[in-house]
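Troubleshooting entry. Yesterday's outputs looked truncated, so today I'm pasting the complete records for two proteins to confirm everything comes through intact. If either block looks cut off, that's the bug. Protein one:
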Amino acid sequence: MFGQTLTFIPKYIELYQKFAKTNQIYIQAGTIIEKIKSSQFVNRAYLFSPNGTYAYQDKLQLTEYEKSIHLLQSGNQQKIFDTSLGKMGIAVCYDSEFPEIIRSLAQHGASIILVPSYTTTLAGYYRVFLSCRARAIENQCHVAISFVINTVNLSGGLDNTYGQAAILGPADVGFPDDGIIAQGQMNQSMLVTGPFSLEALARVRKEGHVHNFEDSGRLTQINHWTLDKTLL
């Protein structure tokens, strides 16, 4: 099923290495299915740097469709990418719907979370988009989402996809009231740009109306709390 990607991957890496180096930018080039062992594949997200180096993050949580293929494996490691723009983390699509995954990245210093996504229903799009808005608020960090759009043939038939790229931040002091720094148009291929400010993040974590990032540390005690069942 994934055999065609095996010969394509070296060219894919070479292409984005060249783009990143020529334009002196970081590129997170979506995801690609990559073979790691005999009959074992992962959904892998590469990050390419301006100096030509690259690294990757494998998807950690599989959707029901991905599980049904029986070839895809879950990733088992999170990575922090230390870049000239700050520390970054990657959460592939469904991974963004789990607060613990993003919280772990933020606790280890990631201020920018990149979320490459592929959603074939509006409900799927909103699950990812709304989750990312929540993750930006919970961790007082930046989240940048991109989506596959147009019709693709991935599951043996033609799938319509839904997406609207966005750059998000905390809905607090120094950021837009809704936390949406920039947003594209639904199902339109376009460049979405907006400011990333580590200084603004540091300020909101210290001087914001709420201190979500700091206060969430208290939740480590939750397993020791007493649950009081009250009958009304």
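Protein two, checking that the full record survives here as well:
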Amino acid sequence: MLKALVRKSQEARNQAYCPYSKFRVGAAVLASNGTVFTGCNVENACYTAGLCAERTAICKAVSEGHTSFKAIAIASDLEDRFISPCGACRQFMREFGSQWDVYLSKSDGSYKLMTVEELLPCSFGGAPRNRAVFLAFGVGWG
């Protein structure tokens, strides 16, 4: 299953819309029930409006009712090092748990395994824990 997940992230990379950076990224997230959702990076002329591959894949899964994940594989065209998610994607992944696997790959398909916790130590996240914080500041929940 792992090799298939990495392969799906590579396939998703091929769909990337990146006319500005030319840096293609793909991701494949494995939901707890075994369903795989893929995503690619989508750039925008307004740079901050772009979306990373990891968040695209996770949003596709969430929009289909999945919020529990086993793993995510990330692929790019980097040959000399493993692709690593940006800080926003690390925090986004953390929202859905800290102990799921993240496979960082190179263009040849080799990979390095880390957990969300290893990528974002001492993190803040997860809806149940944060509810009191939101309520303390008078922010609505849900």
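Both blocks look complete. Sanity check on protein two: Residues 2-13 form the longest helix (12 residues).
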